[in-house]
Write a structure and sequence with these properties.
The complex is a heterodimer of chains A (about 525) and B (about 400). By secondary structure, chain A is an alpha/beta fold. In chain A, about 35% of the residues lie in helices and about 25% in strands. Chain B has about 400 residues and is mainly α. Chain B is about 80% helix and about 0% strand. The chains are: A alpha/beta (about 525), B mainly alpha (about 400). At the A-B interface, helix 11, helix 12, helix 13 and helix 14 of A face helix 1, helix 8, helix 11 and helix 12 of B.
Amino acid sequence: MNATDTREDERAARTDPPVLVAGNLTKQFPGVTAVDDVSLTIKRGEIVALLGQNGAGKSTLIQIIAGLHPAGSFAGEIRLSGKPYQAGSVAEAEAAGVALVPQEINVAPEMTVAENLYLNAEPQLWGFLDQPLRLTRAGKALRDFGLAIDPALPMKALDLATQQLALIARALSKKVALLILDEPTAALTEGEAQRLFDRMRFLAARGMAIIFVTHRLAEVFAVSTRIVIMRDGRICGTHATSDVTRSQVVTEMVGHAVASTERARQPVRRGAALTVEGLKVFDTDDPARLRVRDLSLSLAQGEILGLFGLVGSGCIEAAVALYGAWPGSWEGAITLDGSPVNLDNPTISVASGMGFMAQDRRDCLMPDHAVHDNIILASLERLSATGFSDDARARRTTLDLVRDLAVRTRSIESPVGTLSGGNQQKVQVARWLSAQARILILVDPTRGVDIGARGEIKRIWARLSEEGRSILIASTDAEELVDICDRVIVLRGGEPVAEIGRDELTEERILGVAAGV
Amino acid sequence: MTMSKSEELQAGQRRLGSFSLASLRDYMLLVILAAIWCFFYVATDGIFLMPRNLVLLALQTSIVSLAAISAVMLIVTRNFDLSVGSAVALVGVVVALLSGQYDVQPIIAVAAAILVGLLMGAWQGFWVTRIGVSSFIVTLAGMLYFRGLSMIVTNGATIASLPRPLTRFATAFLPPLPSILLVIATAGGFLLLRWWEIRRAHQLGVVAKPQSLFVKTLIPVIVATGITLFIVSWQGMPWLVLLVAFCALAAELVMRRTRYGAQLYAIGGNPEAARLAGINIKRVIFWNFVIAGLAYGITGVALTARVGGAVAGSAGLFLELDAIAAAIIGGTALSGGRGRILGALVGALLMGSLNNGMSLMNVAPFFQDTVRGAVLLLAVALDHLSRSRARSK
């Protein structure tokens, strides 16, 4: 690009209306205001990093802009390059020049790269698919993006990172004025991420505006020109990247402490309930890739131990493997109460007194079945020792637990799917109490739970630990851990990088360590 | 708002009450059945509802009912069995060959046939759980090679020389007096167990008003007993129907009152949740197929006895489809996690009534199939609509 072009671009940037002007956007979901009166202006050539904790409203905001929430389902006004912009769908948004590359890579693995790139936008000739044109266009889109991929390969032949890059290439093959990347580097290696950043700078220099969402501060400072920080649905800070430091950004992300759930310190450290030495967890698709490299930990009786890390750090995979539920292979020596165990599958774990709550509630609940049936699911052995079920006793157990944990449900016969997120989590707690589990492994246990119920659920953890139960909470959300854990182990890149005791436990601290400040 | 004590008790009561009392949508099915019966009653000048015809209807429905029982148990865990018809034919060949041509004692021949059925079930369970092939494919293959094997063994010929005890089993009746006593004893025993169960629930504080709950159980049981007594008073009860009733009660007991049954429903409700809760899914599904194998054995013997021989080429043809249809009409969800044995029996009865009634009216067979197909579609659609309305309420 020569000097004249640059000057023209600069002039264009001055005179053109901003790419995006969003005014007073508000989006409400039942019981929660996800985006609260947000106004945002983005000019040509800007790379805006959108930061915030889980649940801060980042995702909802970009979904509004990308047409996932159709115009009319939210309040406020959006103008795109000076023109009113009302996208009713992703397709309309793309036609208007806004492209979103979602965080989760959704591809049809058996179909070719070209087929994936032009899904639902297939070039046609007289009403039939134009295969040659599709291959040519796909090839060109990939080459333009600097990717040497044969578009006729099946998508599954590519690794995760390349798939992600191909999808970004797809987004760019259209006439895009505003590109939105949601955690684009979550699946990428360092080198791949650098390549992506190069492309982003190049595209921005050509006048494209880019919003990218990330948790990794190093990336933010490497590539962005401006930082927008969200908290509780609002924008709480906008800075030129060169004007702020990482620690300032972290402080703003965390904001004021949420009403804390103070809990009494464990006075006496009792024996280890669960230990693991040298845990390695392998990727399910690519066994050469390690999700967890080398983790050793010891969970004492009555202790609440946190396992914190950003997306892709391996903390969730480690928790799933410790429960014996990891679908791929893993290795490591686990002991329960001092004796070695072979936790090959959840049946053994449950029999050994462990309980588990998955990251996605839907993996643990039978939504159409009654609260009662969901609660007794893990204690069928105990409640029907003879093989015949003792229905009256099971119901007695359920009713006691429902009252004890204050599960808000119309009756124990209501389908569990009709309960709120927090109450569904309580149903899971009740399940493991009914199964008399001594060790609970919880993954993001307050995800999608509103702030009030979060406190209530955390008080339940505190109570359970006082009763001598051990709890391991694996989370990508710092807020979930700080005021409840005795200790937090922070993972980065599949390895533990720090262990932080209760005295030093703050959101800033663990976020900082996890992000590599 | 946590539930108050009384609300809590009512909640428990609602559920316990719905155990044996037909739930609203089972009721819907009975209404459809009653409408069809009324229609045939008028259309056949009352012949349709005579005890003689009702006994015939029960006999005609018995084979499909037996197959439908195991179909429900499999569909509840999201598995399908397309091999029932062929498996039943193969079992029939075994029992007919042993007892008819090799003069083996009938009782031993029957035992051997049931053993063969169990092995077939275990074989298919092995492929589904250990190798991981979907049950649809495993049983589709089974449908082909079980039929093929029975043709190979018999060379396609019919084996019709069954010993008398076997054919008698399919045609004979338990005389009226013992039948009446048996029906009354069964109903009485059931009510006694129910009363014990409700009283225990009351003692544990799960149920507030045991009497009213018991009365809710009592009414349908008395109605059903009355109808049954009316029918058996004519000539007694066919042994075959007795067999169906016994199998249905046993299966209902397994499904509703054992840990194994709870595990079946849980796996169908959400396999991942069941796995994470420590349920050994492979083992449960394997036994699911072994139970299906037991059903092959029983159904195969019953069918062979009823037909009076083994017809390798046509015995049990389309039985799997009739069984699945009966289960679905009876409220079993194809997506798993929901289904009742008694519902499937009513479903089988509904389809059987159409056959029987239209035959009485001398409707041509081609029309019969068309009508049955239409009724299947309508019944399931009506069920789906009433259910989605109940959910949105």
